[in-house]
Specification:
Layout lengths: L1 H22 L1 E10 L10 E6 L4 E6 L1 E2 L9 E8 L3 E9 L2 E10 L7 E3 L3 E3 L25 E4 L2 E5 L11 H7 L3 E3 L5 E3 L2 E2 L2 E4 L2 E2 L5 H7 L5 E9 L2 H6 L7 E8 L1 H4 L1 E12 L14 E12 L3 E10 L22 E14 L5 E26 L2 E28 L6 E25 L13 E27 L5 E25 L7 E8 L2 E15 L4 E22 L23 H6 L7 E21 L3 E22 L3 E11 L2 E8 L4 E12 L10 E2 L5 E4 L7 E13 L5 E12 L1 E8 L6 E8 L2 E13 L6 E20 L6 E20 L2 E17 L9 E15 L5 E12 L9 E13 L4 E8 L7 E7 L2 E7 L5 E12 L5
Parallel strand pairs: 1-8, 1-9, 15-18, 37-41, 40-43
Antiparallel strand pairs: 1-5, 2-3, 2-6, 4-5, 6-7, 10-11, 11-17, 12-13, 13-14, 15-16, 17-18, 19-20, 19-52, 20-21, 21-22, 22-23, 23-24, 23-51, 24-25, 25-26, 26-27, 27-28, 27-29, 28-30, 29-30, 30-31, 31-32, 32-33, 32-34, 34-35, 35-38, 36-37, 38-39, 39-42, 40-41, 42-43, 43-44, 44-45, 45-46, 46-47, ...
Length: about 950
Amino acid sequence: MLLAMLLVVVEAYAQGKHKEKKEQKVAVWGHVRDSFTKAGIENVKITIMTKDSVVIDTVRVNGNPQRSAGYDATYRTLVPAVPQHLIIKAEHPDYEDCYVNYNLKYIKRNIFFDAKWHYMKRKDKRVSDMDGELNEVVVKATKVRIAYRGDTIVYNADAFNVPEGSMLDGLLQQMDGVELNEQGEIKVNGRKVDYLTLNGKDFFRGKNKIMLDNLPYYTVKEIKVFEKSTELSEFLGRDVQKKDYVMDVQLKREYSIGTLGNVEAGGGPASQNTQDHKTALKLDRYLARAFGLRFTDNTRITLFGNTNNLSQNGTYVSNRGDWMGNSENTQMASRSLGTNVLLNAKDNKFTDEISVKIQWKDTHRANKYSNESFLSTGSSYKISNGDSNADAFDFNLDNKLKIKLPQLSIPFNMNSKFTIDYKKNILSNNNDYTTFASNPFEDNTSYADTINLKKMRINTNIETLNVFLNCDAAVKLPWGDHIELYVSGNYDKQNNDSYSYNLYKYWKKAENNGVQNQYDHTPNHGYEVESNFIYSIDWLTGWSIQTNFHYNQAYADMTYDYHRLDRLGGIYSETSLENWRQMLPSTRDSLLLCLDMDNTYRYELKNRTYDLNLTTTYTIDTDSLYKRFCAVIPIMLNNRRLDYESEILKTLKHKKEITFEPQIEYEIGVDNMKKVFYIGMEMSQYLPDLYNTLDVTNSTFPLAIRKGNSNLKKSSIYTFTTFYQRRGSHDYNSYLRLSSSITSNAIAQGYKYDTSTGVHTYMPENVNGNWTATFNYLVGSAIDSAKLLHWNLRTFYNIYHCVDLASVNTENVSRRSTVMNHNISIEPEVKYRKSKLTLRASGMIKWINSHRYDTDEFYNPNVNAFNISYGFDCTYTFPWKMQLTSDIKMYSRRGYADESMNIDRPIWNAQITYPFIKGQLIGKLIGSDILGQRTNIDYIINAQGKTETWTNNLGRYIIATLQWKFNKRPKRR
């Protein structure tokens, strides 16, 4: 493979040299800006001349449609590829003529040159602006929801019927082809959006939820989705990296400069059956939030705050009755404050952005689960009831600095980031576990089938600090090559203190009954430093070769001190659960006396990685054709050292291993990316944790004993991905994606099960046979010529082949347990929009089929079930400006062995809004889960077993809120 790739490169280089001799042209780029505002100037005539004033070419300046106010304005021309002196003249009727001189040197392998920028001075006009006053003209036109500008999809925000008071997420929910989940991940026509920007600039990059939850929808003019070159590619003038798929939120002109704010507050009663762990006051639901934005072309200051006990950070419209397994659907009260400040030089050579967010969360979670663990001789069963409370505090600070100096004799670009992340969590858990030899839900199960019982009460304090700093720079060399340098450092510290009370009862071995009263102190700290040096040889043909040397060093110091307080006797060995919260011994000697020497240990881990790779890329990027090929051949030397010390074992483990992780990808887009095809393959390798290779036994938790395995091998994952995307007339879009992965030597937590005590003894082992395959197809278009009616169809087919190991105490060798899961989902949707009415009907049918195999046998299907949902939602604005938003959906399950899961539950939400004072004040009445039917049930099956989990949810509620919005515009724009 390596030889073949080298031959391709040599051939391409030879062809490129031949073409270079024929073309004898090189591109010259330029920028034209206002000398005072530094904003780009469009429609400027550019004349390129030799030093003798002989005209070579004339072109026009065009603005960049992906920029906002303060956008760039550029021109491009082709000149003979020889060293020469150029005179470039810029002309515009409102500006004085401007000349720049530019010496074209070092042709070499340069594919373009960035000429000196034109800074034009506006002419002094003394003519009154009112001399040519025109009568008012009113133009009415149908609002176009979706348009295509080149390779950019443009959504007109005003064309969507969004519920009053909504934030940005409410707008996205209404847009055709856009999917949004609770974590803030966005997909457009099936493709995941890499990041959000605001007016072309970063806004809490990587934290979509902040903009989605706090930016009012009415401030948005349009939303653009496009493939964007990375900052490094823009600096170098060619795509040296894969393009990002970006969503840019463009504000309306009146909100682009000025001050805007949005304040909302309200509350209401909760349902009577809501259970809460604190005072009765918590049964009242409340919501309050505020958002303020000061925005100019070059600065932005944002302040926001949010507090509610509605178990979510988002708005009402982001929760459309998703009642199955939503992690945010516990009972949670949250408070958050944040700010974002952006300073941008007028010429975009300097940008600094700082973001700060503080958040508090109080969470109550109740859960029940039943589990069946697959054994070679049958199954074991466990049921659990749990209740937990968590108080969490999170502080995050990000600072990003960007410096871009393309006009230096050696162009320079630098990005740096500094982050501080501090978290503090106080957790308390009450859990009861019972293990059975037979299914406890069957009528013929006897009391004698009970194996063990565990009651656990635990308090935990976790405090973490992480500090991160990185800097990456790129330099464009005069002869066309470029250098990249990346350095970073990371320090983290964590302190865990846990106090737990565990009561064990064994029915078949009563002599093991007892109390384990435990105090755990597990502090750890570590650091990681990294550097990366890249030298890239770039040719005019679009080919390039990069040599990359990467070094990484990581260090971790881990301490695990376990204390068995019950060994002190007295109050610490009582079996009463009511008095389990006991104080720690007052003296250090007492703590040392109860130190659990069998499980207390400390280790230092140091990893060094030396990575040398060769990367070959080929890129063509024009309006009609985009093509990119990339192949990476890396070789990594991993030097790892583990220094382990305990009462039982003191050892030093040192390993040097080589990993190989090649990857290859090809992407082609034609006709302004209307048709895009991508294919990629890669291999990843993972080394086993050195701690897991030690011959030690950890019995901290008596029902789950863990052992090491010195024979662990590294795992390899082979991944294949391809997709085809097409868009056409009549809002037609289709997206087909296939992906698969195969894991070799996967590390499975195999276990041996003791049938008399219910104890699982785990040991990591390598196993083969794990693979997955996924098929996704999304298609949709307008039905009628007026594009009032749209349809979409999403289909998913996922296959998971899971292999694990399990045995019982009567067997000497672990036996393979294999589960094959088939999931097929079909999700049709029809949406109608006209004037003030939006109506959508949607459905979903998901088939879940699971088979379990043993080494020599085939078992009948364990699961052959269906999840079905169907319903509609609508938004309608009445003539008297009152707006109704409602959604109702039926959720059904069929085919589950547990009949309690085969249910039908209708989920109904509604919202009524009414504007006052010309829309500045909005009243809202919100009803969530009006019928009181929402439940959280999750079902998982894999090679180790199947688990059904129920967790509590918020319950139904009705709240009324008032929202005030304001906007202060500058006197002149």
